[in-house]
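Hi R.,

Here's the chain you asked about this morning:
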Amino acid sequence: MAYNGLTNAGAAYKAAREANKLPVEFLKAKVGNGIVPSGTDPAELTDIISGKMEVEITDIHQVERALKMTVQISNESLTTGFYLTEIAIFVNDNGTPVLYWYIGKDNGTYVPDSTKPMKYKNILNIEVSSAPVTTVNYTGKDMWVDEETLNTKFGTGEREILEGIRLAQILGLEFAGELNNSNTKKANKVYYDTQNKSYFKCLNDNVLNYADSNYYEGISNNDLLLKLQNLYKVETYYKTENGITFAFKRIGNLIFYNSSNKIDFSVVGKAKIFNIDNPRFIPRYDAYICSVVSLSTVYDGSISSTGEITLNFGSTPVQPFIALQGIGIAKD
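And the predicted structure, written out as tokens:
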């Protein structure tokens, strides 16, 4: 009986992980030559029927709730050949292995003994929770290279491989592989995003499998071109508060908080001037500003990462001519 899906135990595990906002934690994979008995629901299985060997999980690629998993099968230590008819994927449930996903085939693939060396990969499409998955003891090392890859010529043309040292010389940084997996990514190394078809510099160590802007900076030609184009783009933000109009400018990722205004009311102590309501003019971090009052006294202030502008005018009421001066780094 052919089957490819969650087991009941796997579905319960997945629901519990989603309820607690925890990732699915893959533990291991097994292959075997068992056949699901007639009248047995494969979803009720709690273990592989006739396991022959554990196999390595060599790659995982997640997009929301869909996961593409690659398992590598080798007969390196196999003494007796068998027909592979089942694949079982296990997860870690607080230290207990749970059969999460089961694949049963009616017609198996023959795996010979080690006297006829072979290896091949199986790509599985698995349902998971939306949280990025993890894999116990997964390092991405010891991956098999197939004959097609091994015989591919070095070069820069189509279907040719670019030698790693050449790529490093081009990028000016060490290339560390694909981004779309749960391996640890190291700061100041470059990773390739297969979804965006772009290279990203890692800013901080992480295990994310997507290019979060808090952890990665695009360094492909298109990303650099957009940054250069933004240098020529000048944006202006106008805000009228209590009859006073403030005007700020943004060039690229720099925001210039320079504006001069005469107010017709007295202020004292720490005063909120206004809130910036355009997110493109709100700084990523709190920005320091100062105010020259009546062309003489200077008062300190700040623009918070939520856009609130405040100044501290001291303990004596003043009716000032305010000249704001400050620079901030934009969030996007």
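The helical segments are 8-19, 147-150, 164-171, 221-231.

Let me know if you need anything else.
M.
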